[in-house]
């Protein structure tokens, strides 16, 4: 057995990949929680809190979209390990610098750089785990990566409660540096090492758009995950506004709603990953969870008429139904050959996150016409139907041998 596939190295890869995703989610949620407080401390007027907050969020998302492409291509051209080191190093520096920002412009710049850095974490980690683990059990590895990683949201919410926003960013940067040190000595994927010196096209991002077969697989792989981020980006983010429409009198804290949703997502990721291994199928489990999403979106919007406690409980349930992120990313990784796998696995989740932007815009456009509840229902059920159809168009990949290259 080579070093890349030794039991010790496999365990190390799963752990560092899980912690990388943990830091990824920590940063995403931390910004959402400290956004208003940090902008106020920079002297931003009340009237500018929303537009400046949107600017910072867009900068971070732009960084993740661009970073996803950069790190994905690099993962196929230079190796999975190089991405795990480079991405966390860039993120750590950006977050530490973020703690020293004293203007909105600098804040936006560091959010962009942090976004670029974070974009490589999940994709490179899942690619590496998928390639070093036995094909019959790799779902357990990716299940642990997603389940452990999502608890970064809970830690972010707690850190933001106990520490000033600058300190919270320093904590994120410090965790990144510790993770960087932990990664020293981890071996590269044996599959990737076998093609590293072979003269074949690696990381050809443009091929995903010029080759019809690859393009269809790629688009379907992205569309499967959109309902997950619709739940987070619309139903949970706008939970205070939805609560008013529901007639709930008690105050709803969006940070608390996010935390409960991510607790549900962690439970769902564990459950979906476990079920996919037990029943030996990715497709059927994803279809099951998308169906659950559609049902619980309806329940959340039309039966959520009690108090904030019930709403938070519904956030957990919604999170569970959307907890197929691990299976979704694993499925994307398993659909493509070694020479383009990292590019796909790194860009797909970041494009799904980016899909929140058009989904939110459509939601905002429909709200004055249909009302906030029916607007959310229309967009939510639409993305679920599209996702369900997309699953049916992809091959079953459970137990698939991943040691092949794309020759298109």
Describe, in plain words, how this protein is organized in 3D:
This protein is an all-alpha fold. The protein has a single domain, classed as Up-down Bundle (Growth Hormone, Chain: A), CATH 1.20.1250. Helix content is 77%, strand content 0%. The protein contains 20 helices and no strands. It has helices at 7-41, 49-77, 80-98, 104-118, 121-132, 138-150, 152-162, 165-182, 190-195, 207-210, 212-223, 226-236, 239-246, 254-278, 283-302, 308-321, 325-334, 338-354, 356-370, 372-392. It is globular. The mean pLDDT is 90.
CATH homologous superfamily assignment: MFS general substrate transporter like domains
DSSP E strands, number:
0
* CATH architecture title: Up-down Bundle
Supply Rg. Answer: 20 Å
Task: For the record, give the distance between the C-alpha atoms at the N and C termini, rounded to a whole number.
Answer: 31 Å
Residue windows where pLDDT falls under 50 for at least 5 positions: none
Main β sheet profile? none
Structural class: mainly alpha
- The succession of helices and strands, N to C, reads HHHHHHHHHHHHHHHHHHHH
The percentage of residues in β strands lies in under 5%
Estimate the mean pLDDT confidence: 90
What sort of overall outline do the alpha carbons produce when their principal axes are compared?
A: globular
